[in-house]
UniProtKB/TrEMBL annotation:
Family: Belongs to the cation diffusion facilitator (CDF) transporter (TC 2.A.4) family. SLC30A subfamily.
Name this protein carries in UniProt: Cation efflux protein cytoplasmic domain-containing protein
InterPro entries: Cation_efflux_CTD, Cation_efflux_CTD_sf, CDF_Transporter
Domain of life where this protein originates: Eukaryota
SUPFAM superfamilies the UniProt entry points to: Cation efflux protein cytoplasmic domain-like
Key words, A-Z: Transport
Pfam families per record: ZT_dimer
A GO term from the CC aspect: membrane
Natural source organism: Triticum turgidum subsp. durum (Durum wheat)
GO molecular function ontology, one term from the record: manganese ion transmembrane transporter activity
Cation efflux protein cytoplasmic domain mapped to chain residues: 35-108
């Protein structure tokens, strides 16, 4: 049977706690480092000449990999079939990165609107 000294027990307990906290952080969606976001932005903007602008790039941990969200702006008069092909091929390209689990690409014809999914709209009003 294994027996630990007090110091070894404390060290072992600290390591287990530290590892548990790191695992919990990776499961709850920590944002990707700036270098990863830059890589994704570069990939998106260079993907197709029809992409006018990359509006938003987000990447969150999902276990040891990332969930990625990219919002791109395409010409307003671009046919749906072409827009869909651009978005789908960008999704596939992002998902081919070894650090990405899943990618979601949102297509829009302008980027000057309010955010679609604001947490503030879901919070109860602080005024009676």
């Amino acid at each position: 049977m294994l027996q630990f000294t007090d110091d070894a027990s404390l060290t072992f307990g600290y390591l287990l706690t530290h590892i548990g906290i790191l695992d919990a952080v990776s499961l709850v969606g920590e944002s990707a480092p700036p270098e990863m976001l830059q890589k994704l932005t570069y990939l998106a903007i260079r993907h197709d000449p029809q992409i006018k602008r990359v509006d938003t790039v987000r990447a969150y941990t999902f276990g040891v990999l990332y969930f990625v969200e990219v919002d791109i702006e395409l010409p307003e008069d671009l046919p749906l079939k072409e827009a869909h092909a651009i978005g789908e091929s960008l999704q596939i390209k992002i998902e081919e990165l070894p650090e990405v689990e899943r990618a979601f690409v949102h297509l829009d014809f302008e980027c000057d609107h309010k955010p679609e999914h604001s947490i503030l709209s879901k919070l109860p009003s602080s005024q009676p």
